[in-house]
Each structure stands twice: as C-alpha cells, then as structure tokens.
Amino acid sequence: MTTHALAWLLSYLFNALWQILLLFAAAWIVAHTLRRFGPRVEHRIWVGTLLLQIALPACNLRIAGLWNALLNLLPSHNASAGGSVRVLLGSATIAGNTLQLPSAWQAGIVIAWASIVFYFLMRLAWGLAQTRKFTRTAVPGELPGHIAERWTRHCAHCRITLLPEIVISSQATAPVAIGLRRGIVLLPPQLLETTAPGDLDAVLAHELAHIVRHDFAKNLLYSLISLPIAWHPLAWRTRARLAESRELICDDAAAAAVAGRRQYARSLLRLAS
Known about the structure:
The protein has helices at 3-33, 39-55, 63-72, 103-137, 145-157, 189-194, 197-213, 215-225, 233-257, 261-272, and strands spanning 93-95, 98-100, 139-140, 165-168, 176-178, 184-187. It is α+β, with helices and mostly antiparallel strands and 273 residues long. It has a four-stranded mixed beta sheet with strand order 3-4-6-5. A two-stranded antiparallel sheet has the order 1-2.
C-alpha cells in the first residue's frame, strides 16, 4: 500500500471513529422528534445517516482551520492566534497538524480493519449462498382459493405484473421475501398448514410490501457499501434502526391491505404466540 493511500485510509478510519458517533446521536434525536410523522420519515433519516456515515469520513474537513479562521475575526483572539497545542501518543511524532503513528501501529490498524471487512464480506457471501440453497431446495406452495384470490388482488393493486413466487422450504423458520428481479416469498411448511386464513393474508401482505419496496436488493446494497465502517458498533445500530423502520413501513402497508390496523395487530399477536 502506498504512503498516500495508507495515510488516506488511516485518516478515514480516525474520522469515522468520531463522526459516526456524532451522526448517530443527531439522527437519534431527529428521528425521535419527527416520529409522529410516521415510519417513512424515520426510515429516510436512518438511510441518510448511514450514507453520511460511509461518505463523510472520506471528506477532508478542515474543521480546525475553519475554527481558527473564525476566531481570528475576534479582536481579543489576535494576540494569542499563534499559540498551538500538540498531543503526543506513545512514540508517535507530530509534523505540523499531522499525527504520525509508528509503522507497527499503522500496520496493526490496517490489518485489523482489513480482517473485519473480510469477515463481514464472507458473512454476507455465506448468507447469499444459504438463500440460494433455500430457493433451490424449496417447492412451490399452493395457497387456498380465497387467499390466492386476495394475493392476486394485492399484487394487482401494487401494479405487479409478474406475480411473486410462493415457495415452501423446510429450512425456513419464518416468512421472508427475497429475490432481485422476481420476488420470492419463502414460507416454512407449517405456516400454510396451521395458520388461519386471515393471519396468512396478513403475512403475505407484509412480505408483498417488502417486494414492492425492493428491500432485499436495498439491504444487499447497504451491506456492501457499509463494509468500510462495519467495524464501528454504532454503524451496526444504524443498520438496526434502519431495519426496524423498514419493518414498520411494511406493517403499515400490510395493515392497509388487510382489514385494518386492529385486525393486523391481532394477526401478529396470534402468529407470535
């Protein structure tokens, strides 16, 4: 790795360390303030926060220089404008405004960061492989007559011309919507056998909302572009908040498609029990 690239990477990681913290705190405050406007607004806040957490550390924000320029405008600051504070960590050295870490520290940071990124990349690849395995071993599912009619109407209402495929997999533990081009709803076998028609309709409406929003593709994209900051715990929390708000959006869409919020909430309680 060239010296310039190494310096840029270390700068990115250092900036991400504190900028992700500040961005998460600001997003949490804004999201709780605007929660009354619904989950769509909250979801957009968390999506925007994730994108900023990824991109902002790469920007060369000369905050110290800007702050000094503002302070120099004050007459009382001119006398002490030439002062400076330098911090020395261990055997590191400081040249100008740049903290130069020992080579061993730099190598250790880069190796640790690369290992974490590699781990999460392999974890994502394993998840995709498992999803592909599920779809290969799944068998087509047959919906009851009236549920199939409602499913067709839901798809027509959402302007979906190519109906998503309903498949049954013994390895599935919960309903899930997958697929990049054509939506696939993966159901566990017992769901069709033991679930009441109204509750099954609520499940399918929820998964259809995910398909309409292309959430599988979006989640894959978010996982890929957030790999550089996968080491930061608050990046995980941002992704979790994003997923929670996404589920609330799909719940609202499903409740509107079935018999209303009260009936949908009762269906969720029965399914959870």
